[in-house]
């Protein structure tokens, strides 16, 4: 039997493991699911005869190498910084590797050796990055095949709560890593190119520069800019494109409300707050406000944010219990961002019956035979439950499908790579449709950014 070693049995591995187990008889597969928690690995494999759950510490070099040496192919669903030692072991034992993470500099440095050993190190084959690459390259390649010249590419993606579970004023709940949400946009200005001009949005104004999107059947959304939209320009072959922009999708109104936290300084992760463990939510909020002998914390908050008590922004803050003097932070040596994450998790945790939703939206502007045209491509995926979420489905299924294609010799190009080649994206996008991950493409009038010219 072909042995697939999976490192990590967390939330993103649910659909991955279920898919591979469903194919295990027909494809002659045996899964080894390795996690620090044996109980978690056992839960995900569900006593399946073609699966072996094992407890494994990734930092135990001898145990890790032994597991990799026995495998036919390796999947890492661990945090990105843990992939590199696995990748080095895969080189040593001549094993292919699949991950859903961005290609790090350390991973890219292994490219030459991977090619020399005819090994495929497939990365960025999850949702975002992953499905975004594949669905974008499919349309871009089709436009080029017709002789079209790309003028505009905008790509948006967001992990949201499904409409039937959307029951708070923020129209948002944590469906993935809360810390990533709290720290979104930090670490440098967002940069992109628009109508041939480089544009930059500093963190302080990021959430007030949004673009609106309409998705049929699901209503209106907004998107704020990702930190670096230019990193895939050369990879996609779009060096000469006039407009290139990538953004994160939220429901309309979220960004304006989130900006209140940015203004107050609550998203800062650069310093530790004294006595954070015994601090109340009210004291935390007051920490960012000026002293006043008579004004309450509530009044000071409204004054500094310039909002009235009948403003929906105020209601959103009240909903989070930010002014509660009895709730304690209970986090020692915590940063403002860590405390904010704790407070938000009280209100934004998914309930047992809640479902999540993924929304992806691409815009392709191009010129063909002297005429400017546009294609909009949209995808909405809703989760089944708390285990087989939309996020787990859209991250895990492409990883699993790529793994089988590599095992069966359908993907052959060696090296450290992302899924932008037809041998990768065509079969995976086609099979994803069977699981409800379907892109609807519409021909639109090209609007661009110079409407007065038309």
Automatic annotation (TrEMBL):
The keyword Oxidoreductase applies. Residues 4-120 form the Saccharopine dehydrogenase NADP binding domain. Keywords: Oxidoreductase. Transmembrane segments: none annotated. Pfam families: Sacchrp_dh_C (PF16653), Sacchrp_dh_NADP (PF03435). One of its GO terms (molecular function) is saccharopine dehydrogenase activity. Residues 126-437 form the Saccharopine dehydrogenase-like C-terminal domain. Gene3D superfamilies: Dihydrodipicolinate Reductase, domain 2, Domain 3, Saccharopine reductase, NAD(P)-binding Rossmann-like Domain. SUPFAM superfamilies: Glyceraldehyde-3-phosphate dehydrogenase-like, C-terminal domain, NAD(P)-binding Rossmann-fold domains. The keyword Oxidoreductase applies. This is Saccharopine dehydrogenase.
